[in-house]
Amino acid sequence: MPVQSTAAPARAGSRLCVRCGERKAALKRPKTLEQICRECFYIVFEDEIHRTIVDNNLFKAGERVAIGASGGKDSTVLAYVLSELNKRHNYGLDLFLLSIDEGITGYRDDSLETVKRNEIQYGLPLKIVSYKDLYDWTMDDIVKAIGLKNNCTFCGVFRRQALDRGAALLKVDKIVTGHNADDIAETVLLNILRGDIARLSRCTFITTGEDGPIPRCKPFKYTYEKEIVIYPLHDIFQSILRCIYSPNAYRGFAREFIKDLERMRPRAILDIITSGENFRISTTTRMPEQGTCERCGYISSQKLCKACVLLEGLNRGLPKLGIGRTAKSGAGADGNGERQGKRPERNRSSLHGKHGNLDF
Amino acid sequence: MTSCGGGGGGGGCGANCSSSAADDAPEERLARVTISTGAAATCGKCGVGAVVVVAGGVGLCGECLRAHLFGKFKLAVTSNAMVRPTDSVLLAFSGGPASRVALQFIHDMRSKAVESWDASNSQALPVFDVGVAFVDESALLSKPRREVELAIADIKSIVSSILPSDKAMHITPLEDVFSSESNGREGRLRELVGMINDDTGREDLLQCLRMLSLQKIALENGYAKIMLGSCASAIACHVLSATVKGQGYSLPADVQYVDTRWEVPVVLPLRDCLAQELSLLCELDSLKTQQLLDRPCSGINGLVASFVARLREENPSREHTVVRTAQKLKPFSFNKFSANGYHDFLPSRLRPKFQNVDSDESTLSEVLCLICRTPFSESELQNLESTKHKPQKKIDLYTAYCCQSCHFQILPGGANMYDQFFSLLPKFWTERVDTATASQSSLRDQIEDYLLENNDDEN
Amino acid sequence: MHLTLEFGGGLELLLEKSTKVHKVDVPPMDGEVKATMKGLLSWVKSNLIKERPEMFIKGDSVRPGVLVLINDCDWELCGGLDAELEDKDVVVFISTLHGG
Fold first, then answer.
1. Does A304 reside within a domain?
2. Which of A309, A345, B104, B202 supports an S-S bond with B196, CB 3.0-4.6 Å?
3. pLDDT for A140-149, tens place per residue?
4. Has residue A246 got a pLDDT over 70?
């Protein structure tokens, strides 16, 4: 639904784009405070992502790359931009869309429709892996079994693993995700609030899991959410993604704080990322040694991986098994209580956004 | 940092604190008790008094809260060898609860030391001295003169009720940092502050000037240490604001008990106490505070303060967790007393604890920002080096000696204003760069020596 | 004054009628010569929003994280709250605070 020039009488004070000097400026870039027109915006937006990809050697020619596609704005824009850049700059990548079907009626259905549309629009092969196929449980089933508490823990753990499994099926060399600068800044703050120094040291890496089977990278690491939202404007916002099991989509204070900061000082988001990159963390802080799960072979520092523990609990009718804490009574308790697990850094805090989004 | 912990710590929480446990840090989970309003729970420590606060997971009565806070203070002082018997300590007093408690505690410690000194036969070790400084920033406040005078009179009476000697109290206007100019100091301060466009930058510059002012008082009056009332809550705020300002690299420098990067070392004995607990103690013990001259934080610092206040509501020990995160970052070499023989006053059994100096830690002195004295990160150093290596004017050098954060939020908008701006800064700051450049060649030699040494090691 | 308002990114769910596009007729604001965004926001708040107005408004502006475009132009370039509106303008509100 294009709205261009429906009614755009030249307003007093409307300025020209600082880049082309011809067209009317349409937005102020949060990163540089430049006022530029829409046409120039597309150019610099795509260019910056290209630079990020090149400067950080994210890809090698001939690689197979899966785009973690949720149907949301970030991954949709990522899929489009990456396929464009791949053609334009001859990256020589084989791109795939990889989606997870959690089995949430009415929520994933919609977003999977978006992804299927992307498959056709961008001409990228799509692979959908479902919780049902992998674990024999849909999120609908899980919620039926355990109620609305802790279901996000299941979803987060399962999704993380499902993405790796799907990637393995596609035989890709890399997974890219749509995490943007706001997401990363938020994660830096959350890790400070949780005292999680191990994650704090890694959360600003543009590529993670290089020691594991399939590395993941974030081409939008330096891209502001505001620009991702403006980029497609009307095309993509056909459906909003709101998980029905997390109706408030409560992302915690941290997200709101980030937005408050951005309004006061747009560069704060990049400054937080810079801080995250520069923290003096002694090299002795290392993650626990990674082995593999005895049951499914997935990487795990324990005998069984988290997903297998959770599954066992579900299958034996003990859904609390592996949650890492017993939920206290009380409304709004996002799971506060005692810890059972031995891996403190794996535990979610109440500060964690309800969506496993950040773990995706 | 004199007003640290002041404004933020209202007594709104107290015993009604929601007792959601911190699931992320095990030590915080210890026996957090829920205290229902009205129900008279008894103190988890002495089992007698009525609970007034939950601290460290235990409900405490007033008596035990005092002991708990004093214990933390004393432990911080002794285990970090903050105060030597021969020292004079200058306490930065803002009138707020944190520094008010610090005043009480350091005085109590001294009284006890004097008692035992009187009692001991040898009287071998002298007892440290205490003085108090108040930096008067009223030049920048739009408050009626009369109000300011009353507030300052209040501050004086609070201090003299504890330290009767006139010589122990130093009230200095902030503009005195511009010592060389006999008149027009106030105008110069206003002009300097007025050149800064960013609210946060203005506030942060004042913070730097305040520290300079304290340093000056300490140097002129022979104090060996400056003690700040920075409490855990204030430090938690600082951790987050520094992160937001992109100062992740230098952050650990500011959160340690000891900071010797200044002419007179700075110590933070209240680092482990929460603002709320300190305010409550002031209330319980009727410790008078005077915060009329406090400025509420604004800009980024204000946003961070209200964010931290929300976090505190969600979980009272969140501030501790934030401070603990920052403590896990690597401190700098100046975050401990390292002068030869510094620890000689300690009993010999305690000395080894302070002597495990990392030999691999670079002995090179850190390059510090001209304005805020944060240590330079890699990229800031690179920028400085490249400026040094090309033909430059003095102003270019001054600019390169500012950290990226001061660059953005403190330096004035147009580079054409830099000349004026740097000429307004306290001479003390700019002269430091002048001397540093003078000895630059010798520093370069030092670096080369160091590199050579390293090469030798590898071979 | 006729305006076309569009709500996206989840904001439409806060409205009386959960559709994205609203063609509305905004009466002249009290005491104001020209219609401004400030006036429009308070009109939207009292006439269109059904629940959780705090997801949309904070203070007298939109909540940080909500993008506003006037005729496809970032409202920050048009004067923000003081931006003047004219008949047949298209104003878009998009929240970025919902899932990615």
1. no
2. B202
3. 898 888 877 7
4. no
Q: Decide if A324 is inside a domain.
A: no
Percent of chain A with pLDDT over 90: 49
> Chains near C, with 3+ CB pairs < 8 A?
A
Whether residue A275 and residue B303 make contact (CB cut-off 8 A), yes or no, is: no
Contact C67 A9 (CB under 8 A): no
Tell me, yes or no, whether B432 and B320 share the same domain. Answer: no
Q: Which of A8, A182, A230 sits opposite C67 (nearest CB)?
A: A230
Q: Yes or no: is domain C2-95 CATH 1.10.10.10?
A: no
pLDDT digits (tens, 9 = 90+) for A121-133: 889 999 999 999 9
Domain check: are B411 and B287 in the same one?
Answer: no
**CATH, residue A120:** 3.40.50.620
Q: For the segment A252-272, what is each residue's pLDDT rounded down to a tens digit?
A: 688 889 999 999 999 999 999
Q: Is A14 on the interface with C (CB under 8 A)?
A: yes
Domain count, chain A: 1
Residue B22, pLDDT above cutoff 60: no
- Domain identity same for B346 and B391: no
B163 plus B242 within the same structural domain: yes
The residue with tokens 């590529």 is: A207
Please give the pLDDT value at position B199.
95
Any binding-site annotation on A68?
yes
Q: Is A311 inside a domain boundary?
A: no
> Does position B363 have pLDDT exceeding 60, yes or no?
no
Residue A290 lies in a domain: no
The parent domain of residue A206 ranges over 48-284
Separation in Å, CA of A268 to nearest CA in chain B: 6
* Full-model pTM: 0.86
**Total number of domains constituting chain B:** 2
**Residue B371, domain member (yes or no):** no
Residue A71 CA to residue A80 CA, distance in Å, equals 12
| Full residue range of the structural domain in which residue B416 is found | 378-458
Say whether both B73 and B216 belong to one domain: yes
pLDDT at A358: 37
pLDDT band at residue B1 under the 50/70/90 scheme: very low
Give mean pLDDT, residues B369-394: 91
ipTM of the complex: 0.88
Same domain, B333 and B440: no
pLDDT digits (tens, 9 = 90+) for B76-113: 999 999 999 999 999 999 999 999 999 999 999 999 98
Half-sphere exposure of B139 (CA within 13 A, CB side): 22
Is A75 annotated for ligand binding?
Answer: no
